[in-house]
Specification:
The chain folds into 2 domains: 2-218, Metallo-beta-lactamase, Chain A (4-Layer Sandwich), CATH 3.60.15; 224-282. The protein is built from 10 helices and 12 strands. The chain has helices at 37-48, 63-66, 82-87, 97-103, 105-108, 119-124, 188-199, 219-238, 243-249, 266-282; strands spanning 2-3, 8-10, 20-24, 27-31, 53-57, 77-81, 131-133, 137-141, 144-150, 159-163, 168-176, 205-210. Helix 7 (188-199) runs antiparallel to helix 8 (219-238) and helix 8 packs across helix 10 (266-282).
Length: 289
Amino acid sequence: MEQVTANVFTDTTLRGCNPSFVVTSDGVVVIDTPQLPTKAVAMRKLAESYGAIRYLINTEHHVDHIFGNYFFKGAGTVVHHQGVDEMFMKVLPNIDPYAYAAEAIPTDDPEGALIFPDRDTYFRDPNKGTIVFTGDVTLRVGGHTFHLLHTPGHTRGQIAVHVPEERVVLTGDTIFHDCQTWLMESDVPMWLDALERIRALDVDHVLPGHGPVTTTDYVATQRAVLLDWVSAVAGAIAKGWSREETIARVSFAERFPVDIGQGYMMDHIQTKNAASLYDKLTAKPAKGI
């Protein structure tokens, strides 16, 4: 794992999110867990070499941030927002997160097949949060402060973790650094507000949900990505393009690569992003509003 500061470690080289941990004088705080089983086991072993794991914090409910919780059972208290709790590994008509996690095993973690749990075993205890909160929460561990900031936009339960003593913020998927941004569940106005909240923090290092470690200067680029997507789809609607035509013609595939291990999903990201925004921008207000 990459050592960002004296006490902050992250891994930006894996398929899935960037899992991280912070070492304090009274144990370790883990932020997100690897999707791949052998990587989760290895990260737990490394984290515990610095002390007992006190807390495991999830920044969102998407499978690449939470599936590895299964391999951290018995290691610290799991903490996440109510929005994460409500959607934790929820099977929906358009996505089965368990199947999505299993899909990555043959290509990205073949050795993980030996420890990958069957569906029934997994769902008996996926290691969900026992501390579930709304709004913001502050944890103090040893000499470190962990401000859990509700930053909805990418998802409803999205949080960022600000550790002022290390001058670091871990943003989850509020920031995709130099890789494709996923907009499927997004609320772009809320996401833009979340970015401004992150920009205002006095930090030296921004640990994004995907991509290399960066700084708050990248907030402007992430903001531009969101606005460009909205502008392009709104422009298509204004021209009278149908939903199908918009999906076929609006693409930002040339702007950034897909994050590690998911290059085959470029077309999927473009079509789903365009479809999601088209549906939101053409939605009729609810009656009485």
